[in-house]
Amino acid sequence: MKTLGHWLTSPRRRTAVAALAGALPVAAFPAPALWWWAYLALVPWILLIRSAPTLRRAAYDGWSGGFGFMLAMHHWLLPDLHVFTLVIAALLGGLWAPWGWLVRRFLADDAVPTRGRVLGALLVLPSGWLAVELVRSWQGLGGPWGMLGASQWQVEPALRLASVGGVWLLGFLVVAVNVAAAVLIALPASRAPAVAGLMATAATASAAWVWAPQPDGEGRARIAVVQPGVIDGPDLRFDREEQLTRRLVGQDVDLIVWGESSVGYDLAERSDLAERLATLSRATGADILVNVDARRSDRPGIYKSSILVGPDGPTGDRYDKMRLVPFGEYIPARSLLGWATSVGKAAGEDRRRGAGQVVMHAGPGLRVGPMVCFETAFPDMSRSLAEDGADVLVAQSSTSSFQHSWAPAQHASLGALRAAETGRPFVHSTLTGVSAVYDASGRRIGSWLGTEASATAVYEVPLADGVTPYVRYGDWPVHLALLVLAAMALSEGARTVRLRRTAAAPLGPPARTVRESPARPGR
């Protein structure tokens, strides 16, 4: 350990190790999907930060690890954004600098933390992590892709907890377990509070799991997904989607869903395409939810729009995508960052944003809440649709630019979290895979359509009623985390004031000079 510590005295080596340590949690996400690894993956990073010689160096270790985490989580963007991927990772990695400061503040290597400080770390460090995820969840900073709690999408007890506190609660628990594991490894004298913290976490999670209500069954819907595969050109793509949809004739489906950018022309201008879709709807007996990526004829700009088409043509139900992919669909601060178009496949023209979410009425009594691609990463969007009465959450997406990366599988996994959080089934339909369907508890229905498939699939989707605690109470774990951080800040402030007053106060009253009286004669 002394040799390792000496080796890490080099700032460059330490920075490289911190970046590698920060990248470790990515293996818990698809495609590796080693969900159990999430509960240990932060330990090397925490141990490195706590050994930092100063708080400033600890903050830098947090930044370096954040850079490694963001770069590894978005490595599949490198072929499209090139060097700009590194710039984004470096900027967003800075959000973990305060978290690194907190790690050393509570678990410093140069002293044995008290029991209270260890217990405080089990609250403050997960709260700090949630604060980081809250800030980077802002769409202007790239959105919440790769939230730590999302690594638990295939763990049924975790999905049950997601219905109580969303992906935020899962992230808090994962970080808390990592902090406790780091204490158990590095601080033998503090193992008792770490074990107590783990037991309290387990007891609280178990109580929440038992208390969480199960979705109530409310009938079924037969929903078909149409996935054409990688096809260049909007006309050829439409022809293939039409061909695949005709296979659904006679299968008694209630809704057919095409992927993102499945139609490359404005249907108001291309009445021939609208009529072909209406013919398909009449033949299959189901409404078809398509996604138009085109310049609109009724207003300026390019929109990505979910449009419902029935037997008589477009029904009038339309949702324009609200949250766009930075650099892929628009360039933030284009006047400053427009140079990104010269080094990668950044958007040459910004897409326009929609004004609000929409619940569509498809067929007899089926209420559909559409989202487009990247929007499935935002838990508040699916929660809002559930509040507005959606029976089924539907996402239309395309990851054709990233076919041979981890992105398609990770994108598809988000549907499990959104379903569990809202208590509503989730249909994820893509152009090129991975397409997937989940029930109201987040369990997968049927098989995925992988990135090599050009096919249709029909799913028996059980509908559900009721309101989950997460839909009812929202992002309460984040609010509690912010309260914990505020209380810590007040405590630290009061401590600083006390120390300053103590340092400024005099040590005691000045010594009094005692004069001896001269001896009198005769005495």
Kindly describe this structure:
The chain is α/β, with parallel strands linked by helices and 523 residues long. The protein is built from 17 helices and eleven strands. The strands form two sheets. It has a six-stranded mixed β-sheet with strand order 5-4-3-2-1-11. A five-stranded mixed β-sheet has the order 6-7-8-9-10, with helices on one face.
Helices and strands, with pairings:
Elements: H1 2-7, H2 11-23, H3 43-50, H4 55-73, H5 78-81, H6 83-93, H7 97-107, H8 115-136, H9 156-186, H10 191-211, E1 216-227, H11 234-246, E2 255-258, H12 271-284, E3 287-295, E4 302-310, E5 313-320, H13 334-337, E6 360-362, E7 366-372, H14 379-387, E8 392-397, H15 407-422, E9 426-430, E10 436-438, E11 455-465, H16 469-473, H17 476-504
Helix pairs in contact: 2-3, 2-4, 3-4, 3-9, 4-6, 4-7, 7-8, 8-9, 8-10, 8-17, 9-10, 9-15, 14-15
Features:
disordered C terminus, six-stranded mixed sheet, five-stranded mixed sheet, 17 helices, alpha/beta
The profile of the biggest β sheet is: 6 strands, mixed
* H/E series: HHHHHHHHHHEHEHEEEHEEHEHEEEHH
Q: Provide the low-confidence segments as ranges.
A: 519-523
Percent helix among the residues? 40-55%
Mean pLDDT, nearest integer?
Answer: 90
DSSP E strands, number: 11
Backbone CA Rg: 28 Å
Q: Identify the strand order in the major beta sheet.
A: 5-4-3-2-1-11
| Category by helix and strand content | alpha/beta
Tertiary shape = globular
